[in-house]
């Protein structure tokens, strides 16, 4: 089985197992996804979803966050960890959205990467979830499972994993596939415990299960 065939079969099986996968960060507006994904670095999505409720209660829009000081934002987002750097990025990002993009979140990789605190992973999430464009979000689950399944071999650098996956994942499948990898990585192909290969929907094709 070629890597492309392996990818297509993994996509098919994960669709059956997780038909309703989606982003676990809660947001109603595109800019809120940018805030949440920045806070999610080294923090659980569940905690982020709680913390942002207090943040938006005090600063309900781009303008109010842009006008707030980073120090004030930090007081609220500190429970997510790395509060100082995250607050600084969120503040600078909101200022740029207000002053450069007229309050709109850009819809291209090039423009998204100009925003403070936004890397390729965050940009791909926005492109896929907000704008429905082809996207591959190489978070820790995507990287871990891609290696275990055999879609990539010994590659852990997010940009390189993304580049390899673009070669074998149909563009229209990438975003949903990555969401399903997150669900599977949390439930079955876990990082902190031995993977539950006996109940894995990919155990007939996965390189890890075949070891």
Protein described:
With 211 residues, the chain is mostly helical. It has two domains: 84 residues, Endonuclease Iii, domain 2, CATH 1.10.1670.10; 100 residues, Endonuclease III, domain 1 (Orthogonal Bundle). The protein has eleven helices and no strands. The longest helix is centred in the middle third of the chain and has 17 residues. The protein is elongated, with a radius of gyration of 18 Å. The mean pLDDT is 96.
Which SSEs are present, and which pair or pack?
Blueprint: H1 3-17, H2 30-39, H3 45-58, H4 62-67, H5 70-77, H6 83-99, H7 109-112, H8 120-129, H9 140-149, H10 158-168, H11 174-187
Return the average pLDDT rounded to an integer: 96
The run of helices and strands is HHHHHHHHHHH
Superfamily at the CATH H level of the largest domain?
Answer: Hypothetical protein, domain 2
CATH class of the largest domain, named Mainly Alpha
Characterize the overall form.
Answer: elongated
- The number of distinct helices, counting runs of at least 4 residues, comes to 11
Strand content: under 5%
Main sheet summary: none
Write down the Rg: 18 Å
Number of strand elements? 0
Give start-end ranges of low-pLDDT stretches.
none
Query: Can you name the CATH architecture of the largest domain?
Result: Orthogonal Bundle
Please bin the fraction of helical residues.
Answer: 55-70%
Number of domains: 2
User: Would you tell me which CATH topology of the largest domain applies?
Assistant: Endonuclease III, domain 1
Distance between the termini: 16 Å
Helices and strands: which structural class?
A: mainly alpha
């Amino acid at each position: 089985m070629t890597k492309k065939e392996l990818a297509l079969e993994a996509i098919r099986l994960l669709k059956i197992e997780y038909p309703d996968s989606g982003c676990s960060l809660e947001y109603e507006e595109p800019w809120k996804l940018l805030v949440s994904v920045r806070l999610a670095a080294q923090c659980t999505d569940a905690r982020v979803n709680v913390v942002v409720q207090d943040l938006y209660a005090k600063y309900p829009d781009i303008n109010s966050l842009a006008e707030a000081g980073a120090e004030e934002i930090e007081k609220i987002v500190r429970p997510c960890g790395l509060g100082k750097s995250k607050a600084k990025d969120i503040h600078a990002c909101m200022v740029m959205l207000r002053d450069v993009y007229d309050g709109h979140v850009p819809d291209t990789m090039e423009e998204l990467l100009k925003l403070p605190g936004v890397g390729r992973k965050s940009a791909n999430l926005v492109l896929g979830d907000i704008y429905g464009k082809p996207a591959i979000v190489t978070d820790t689950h995507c990287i871990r499972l891609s290696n275990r399944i055999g879609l990539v071999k010994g590659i852990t650098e997010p940009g390189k994993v993304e580049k390899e996956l673009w070669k074998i994942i149909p563009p229209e499948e990438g975003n949903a596939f990555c969401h399903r990898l997150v669900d599977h990585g949390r439930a079955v192909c876990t990082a902190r415990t031995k993977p539950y290969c006996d109940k894995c929907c990919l155990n007939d094709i996965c390189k890890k299960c075949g070891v």
